[in-house]
Each structure stands twice: as C-alpha cells, then as structure tokens.
Amino acid sequence: MLKDLDRPDFFGNPSSGHSEGRAARAALEEARLICTEALGADEGTIYFTSGATEANAIILFSMLYGHAAGVKQGLITTAVEHPSITKNCAPLEHMGIPVHYVDVDRFGGAVPDALEKALHKHTDATMLALMYVNNETGAISDLPSLIKTARQRDGKPLHIHSDMVQALGKIPFALRDMDIDSAAFSAHKIGGPRGIGILYLRKPVQTLYRGGGQEGGMRPGTENTPGACHFAKAIRLRTEAQTKSLQEAAANMAYLIEALREMKRCTIIPECRQAVDERYSPYILQAAFRDVPGEIMVRALDDLGFAVSTGSACSTGSKKRPVLNAIGISDALAFTAVRISFGWTTKLDDINALVDAVRRILSKF
Ligand code: PLP
Questions:
Q1: Rounded CA gap, 236 and 231, in Å?
Q2: Overall pTM > 0.90
Q3: Can you give the residue range of the structural domain that contains 45?
Q4: Into how many domains does the chain fold?
Q5: Tens digit of each residue's pLDDT (9 = 90 or more) over 86-99
Q6: Pocket test for ligand 1, best of 59, 84, 224 (most atoms within 8 A of CB)
C-alpha cells in the first residue's frame, strides 16, 4: 500500500470526465472486476462501501423505503449477529419495523426448525439476516440449508442477507452458488486497508439516502479508489491462498485447543467444540480462564506481546457479551472469556508462545 501512494490514477475523482478522472475510473473498475471474480459473483453486483458496517446498514435500512410506502416489512435475524446488525434493530423497531429473533443452538448457529417456525409465524417478514461465520465464537452457520428452508416459505418474497465478513479469504465460497440477495464484506479482515468494504447485491435495491449517484446509487459519495484497489489486491492474495491457509489454521487451532484443554482452569467456549471441528472457523476461538476477568487477561497478554480481545472490537467498552449469552453461556463464565484469533501468518511457534504466556499469567492469579 505504501509503495502505491503516489500512483497517478489514485488522485482523480472517478466520476470526473478529465483524464485524471478517467484513469481513476479505470483503476476503480479494475478493482471491482478483481473483487467480483474473487467472490464468485456476477458482473454488476459489487458496490464499494466504507466497510461492512455501512453495507449492513444500507441493506437493513432499505426496508424503511417500502415501509414508508405502506408495504409491511419485518426482519428475522439472530442474537449472535455482529453489532452492525443487532444494534440497528432498535432504530428499525422504533420506526415501526418488527424484528424477530430465531434461536441459536449451543454450537452457535441458527436452529433450522426455529427458523422455519419464525418464517411461517411472521409472514410479513421481508428480510432475513444471518451471518455466515461468527466473529466471536467462529461458529460457521449451515447457511446453504438455512437458505433452502427460507426459500420454501410461501408468500411474500424474502430478501436474504448475510454478513460474510469472517468468511472472506478464510472459508472458500462462490456467491453465485449461494442463493442470497445481498452480503457484506470488509477489507481490513483480510489484510486490506480500513475504511473500505463491499455490499454485494444480486439486484439493486431502493436505498434510503441519496447523493451524487456513485456506485449505481447504492452508496453515493466520492469513491475511495486507493481503498478499492488495495481491497482488490488483498482479496486476490487471500482467496488464492485460502485453502492452504485454512489447512494450516486448522492444524494450529487443533494444537491450541488441545494445549488449552490441558489447563484445568480453561474452558473452551462452547465446550462442545472439538480440537478438529468443521463447524468452526479455525481462525477464531473463544476461551475462558477461571478467576481471571477477560479484560485482565487481555491486558496481561498485551504486556507479553499478544493481541487478543473480549468480544468484538465494535463493542469495546461494553461489559455485556450478548453473543455468548445467546448460546447459553452464563454471565460469570462470559466475564472470564477472551477471543483469540489467528492471522494467516500465525505459526506453531506463536501458539506455543501464547500457551506459555497464558500459563505464566494463570500462575499469578
Ligand atoms: N461484521 C463482522 C462479522 C465483523 O467481524 C466486522 C468487523 O469487526 C464487521 C461486520 C464490521 O466491519 P467494518 O469494520 O468494516 O465496518
């Protein structure tokens, strides 16, 4: 990214007709094409946004358009979604759109029977929002079968949206093989820059806000050409290497889980997670350490050079762990839980060093 900073095609406004603008437009469209291919999407379905939060918000609030026109709307979702979905449910309800929550099981995914019931009970629901990979527990939802269930509902057409941030570059998929209407992605989870994301839209929707009509009107505002080009670079690198990285991460995660299970004071969350377990992303682990509050563990590990967190960075400051509660974890256990995540450069040596660090911290508490 640093090497690219003085690229001449990064300076023009892609919507301007002069040569600098045309160069920027060419760079932006090339980035879009690379992202379209890497996501396995069809041409004309990729819109750049400022991140996944904005992509999620654009789609959720698009319901208000129909609502204002008198067409009944409703959202079905789960309590384990990222805050950029769950926190937008209150304003939606405030504006008159009912939100219904489908139960999740102890593995962390939506329960298919519960989804079926919710779909039949709330026949006015027009949107279903289900994340693919959970950012706190790593749970991979059985999206294909949940989508199949949802599509079998008679009546109102259902818009199916998925927050796929934690799947990108980690769990292989092709959007054109998934029967979804929209999805959200973020560059900074795959080594790209912060402040750029993607909204995938199988077909354009009526969005709530207007501007200069950029991004087909789906996300007006001057485009972030450098961000899009660097997202494209990251998406290509990460998706090309994802199968090999996934195998490495799975071996590393199995090793970490086994090492942590040997510590009497450690609880893997959820406890049913196995060392080798395809229901979870091998890049994310939630674990609790008895008698050590999660925030203390985060700070103690930070002092030893490890960056872990409690919950998602987007809910820093909140002591609540709604995602853990939703999968049946008590407040007391959740209080001592931390999220450990791997990058594609994480090696076995890093994991051994982490395990040693945790042992040292536990010996002091
Ligand atoms: N959704 C999930 C699952 C995430 O993990 C994140 C990032 O933390 C987001 C959405 C928000 O993405 P962004 O930071 O690009 O707005």
A1: 9
A2: yes
A3: 2-240
A4: 2
A5: 999 999 999 999 99
A6: 84
